[in-house]
């Protein structure tokens, strides 16, 4: 359940990623660019999952007192602290200015690149802090390798719920896609940054508390 929640947190705290997908869909070969972005995102999750399941799964995470388990708790605390501090800093800076309704400039330059570059962009824009926290949770749960793979799959599917939505709209309702995605983009650029940063601060605090609790258990 925690892993699923972290996956949803990644989805809800990534408004810039959703905007990126929407902009990619409006470019030449837009459908391929949108799908490539989602594929890149999933490949990044798979890479972290393979490292966790194949290389670290054999470590002793059977109790909170083992060295690997305590190391995972420390990672969770550090990730939580970094997430909390960076989100708080970004939120504080945001309060001194109005929310921007402009599309980031670097996105427009992707129009001149090969659509496959969207794979790299998708992999780059994954929220790695929360993905690492999910990996730590899975390792500390001391489940079988098959269950760990299933947990990563659940996390991956939950994490793409928002970024895959524009792609689905384009494929399912192409006639209405332009107007609908334009409305989504305006709302996301104008309103969702503060919401995402607040959510990240809350999640960071929760990770810190969970990590400390496991260390002293």
Morphology: globular
Give me the strand/helix succession.
HHHHHHHHHH
What does the largest sheet look like? none
Helix proportion range: over 70%
Description:
Helix 4 (67-94) crosses helix 10 (174-216). This protein is an all-alpha fold. The chain has one domain. Helices cover 79% and strands 0% of the residues. It has ten helices and no strands.
What's the structural blueprint in terms of helices and strands?
Layout: H1 2-12, H2 15-25, H3 30-56, H4 67-94, H5 105-109, H6 117-125, H7 128-140, H8 145-159, H9 164-172, H10 174-216
Concise account of the structure shown:
The protein has 217 residues and is an all-alpha fold. The chain has helices at residues 2-12, 15-25, 30-56, 67-94, 105-109, 117-125, 128-140, 145-159, 164-172, 174-216. It is globular, with a radius of gyration of 18 Å.
């Amino acid at each position: 359940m925690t892993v699923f929640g972290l996956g949803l947190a990644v989805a809800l705290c990534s408004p810039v990623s959703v905007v990126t997908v929407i902009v990619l869909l409006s470019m030449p070969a837009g459908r391929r660019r949108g799908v490539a972005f989602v594929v890149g995102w999933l490949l990044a999750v798979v890479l972290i999952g393979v490292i966790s399941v194949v290389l670290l799964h054999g470590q002793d995470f059977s109790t909170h007192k083992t060295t690997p388990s305590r190391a995972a708790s420390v990672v969770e605390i550090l990730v939580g602290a970094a997430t909390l501090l960076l989100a708080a800093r970004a939120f504080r800076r945001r309060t001194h200015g109005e929310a921007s309704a402009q599309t980031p400039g670097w996105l427009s330059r992707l129009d001149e690149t090969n659509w496959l570059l969207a794979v790299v962009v998708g992999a780059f824009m994954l929220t790695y802090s929360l993905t690492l926290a999910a990996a730590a949770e899975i390792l500390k749960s001391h489940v079988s390798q098959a269950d760990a793979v299933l947990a990563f799959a659940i996390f991956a599917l939950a994490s793409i719920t928002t970024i895959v939505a524009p792609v689905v709209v384009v494929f399912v309702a192409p006639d209405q896609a332009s107007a609908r995605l334009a409305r989504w983009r305006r709302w996301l650029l104008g309103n969702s940054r503060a919401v995402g940063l607040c959510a990240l601060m809350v999640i960071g605090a929760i990770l810190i508390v969970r990590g400390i609790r496991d260390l002293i258990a």
